[in-house]
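User: Structure tokens for both sequences below?

Assistant:
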Amino acid sequence: MPEKPAVAVIGCGAMGGAIARGLVAKERVEPADLVLVDADAKKAADLAAELGARSVASADLGGATADVVLLAVKPQVLAAVCKEIAPVFRGRLVISIAAGVNLASLAKLAPGAAGIVRAMPNLALTAGSGATALASQSATSEQRSLARELFDAFGPAEFFTEGQLDAMGAISGAEPAYVALFVDALTRAAIEQGLPAATARRFILSTMIGTAKILEEGEHPRAFMEEVMSPGGTTVRAVAAMDPAFTKATHEGVRAAVARTRELAEGGA
């Protein structure tokens, strides 16, 4: 594989578009070596013009130079898309971000691929700061390194077993929704206490970003909580009230997401 591979991104929606922008912004690919394909030809053309890349119709993709084919389409249309572009896979590394489509299914959908990698990024990637879980049974060590280098443009990118990837999808992949849910719940609690929603949300988000930065520096969450909670104070009372139900709901939510992921895989979705 070359130092900067040629990449074809199939699907220019929220995730595909964010990945394309990030790969160029972080200089993982040269704009001239990035090919964009979307069912909406104008969407692909507009993004290509923005990035200095190329857009092609799926029928013309076979003539494009690409070391990596990145599938960024929804699981329900993946099979049809793969059938349409099947010749493109031969001899190339294929990376799919389709949730619930396992490696065995991808091997059937991408015949002749030199290696196949599942990637589970999260929506925070669209803001330039996400995390990506990866899994593969066929990729070489060189291909694994390449996949990791492409996705670490957005944050941590690590390989897991496929079972672990399903779990990471339920945790990290879905985490933006969990965080948004907590922000919304805390905002509604603020409104109940007579605070204006917009101001409360601004304070909540600013504090959340600061807390994440502190924890990112290595502070253990429990140790940090102890710093905030004065003995007999208001915060310790609040955490004591929240902790049992919050922890239980979090575990149940992750188990439900993992179960759904496996349902989708078994159903071939």
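Moving on to the next sequence.
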Amino acid sequence: MSDAAPQGIPGDNLNWPMLKIDYLTDADKLAALLPPGISPASSPEVRLTLYNFPVNNEPELGLVMNVAAAYDGVEGEYSLGYAIDQEQAVYISREHWGQPKYLASVRYYRLHNKVEAFVEHKGCTFFEYQGTVSQDDEPGEITEVNEWWIKASRSLTMQPNQYDYSPQVLKVYAKYRTAFQQALDGELILRDSAWDPIAQKLPVAGAINARLWWPEFLAREITLAGPLDPEGFWPFADTIGGTRFPGQLGGPPAS
């Protein structure tokens, strides 16, 4: 594995790094977001990823909001939301796999050693990061990640605890090699938002670690991992838009 900075065709989207941000949050608040059957992992960690990557052969800018969680004894990441700027990927992703994508305005760029990212939805810039590259890190080892998505469809009869497709956990297995990464010094700002309540539901409770990450993709597979209890999941079926944040009739909770 080389520790040289990535080289490629200038302007090619495949050469964009991911902006990875991790922090610890309140364990009780994190646990409250997990439906029965999905359990907190050993550490109450929030894992955010800003990306600019080709989807459907065109650039997609997005913010992934995941938390450390386990299913059936296997630790991984539970996905609460993918705020993205590409409309055609939103609905098919939700229908096929339960991937919680929804539309937002995303800006993410690097100019020399300065990195900035902003995510806006419903008139609120609920996520902001500004930082500078502080050092090159040693390339990491091969990493395997299990991401948990939920696919479900409530009954058209609207009767409680009735489904046309009962809740199933999808396991998204991915394997990466870290080709190159750079540590960042900067500031993460999470603003209160009724539609994107990451600041309220997952407040920062520890050090913030940020880095630019160039992965080498080695494997990815999406499979059905198993069911969730339909009655236990019922209160978690109402969400905010396409996210997995709790809501009412597809919108934010009533104030």
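User: Anything stand out in the second?

Assistant: The radius of gyration is 18 Å.
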